[in-house]
Amino acid sequence: MASKRLVVELYYDVVSPYSYFCFEALTRYRQPWDMDLRLKPFHLGGIMKAANNKPPGMVPNKARYMLKDLSRLSKYYDVPFKIPEEFMEWVLTRTTLSAQRFLCALQLHGPDHVEAVSRAFYQRLFGENKEIMSLECIPEVAKAANLTQDLIDKCLKAIESDDVKDLVKKHTDEALDMNAFGAPTIVAHISGKKEMYFGQDRLYLLAHEAGKPWLGPLTQAKH
After folding, report:
1. Record: fold of 6-221
2. Most Cβ neighbours (<10 Å): which of 1, 53, 146, 155?
3. Does 98 qualify as catalytic in the annotation?
C-alpha cells in the first residue's frame, strides 16, 4: 500500500524575509519529501496584533543580529537578498494587505500562478529593493511572473471582493488556531495530527518528525 503524501501548509506574508527563505526551501523539497505544499497567504499584521508580538527589527540587538543571519541564509540557500534601506519605515507605516489579497485572488482565479507571483513579490522587495505595499506595483509584479493581462485585471478587480477578503481571514484564523505568532508559520500533517513549526530554521525538525530526509539547501533545485 502506497504511503500518503506529506501535506505541508505554509502561512506566510511577502513582507517577511524569513518567510522568503522558508518558501524557497519548501518549494525545493516537494520531490525529496513527496510533499503536497499548500501556500496560505495570510495577514501578518493581524497575526502580530492577536499574538501581542512586534517585529524583530524593533529590538536593536535582534535587528543587528538579523542582518547577519539573513546574509548567512542568502549564501546558504543561494538566494540573492538585501534588506531595503527603507524596510523598517515600510513595515511600520504601510501594509502588504493588497499583495496578500492579490495572492488570495489568484488562488481563486489562477491557483497555478500563486507560487510564481509570491516569488516575484519577494524578488522585487529583497532583490530589487522596491516597495510591494502599493496597489500600483502589483501589475508590475504580476507581469514579472508572466501573468496575462486578463488574469491580472480579474484578480485586481477581485481584491476588494468578500470572497478574497474572507480567504485572507480564513488563512489568518487557521494560523491563529495553531497558536501562530509570526511568519513563517508551517503546519505539517504528520501521523494524522497537525504539527506547527515557526521559522525556516525548524524545517530539519519537521523532516525528522515526518520521517523525511534533510538534505541541506538543495541549491541544485533552485528556481
Report:
1. Glutaredoxin (3.40.30)
2. 155
3. no
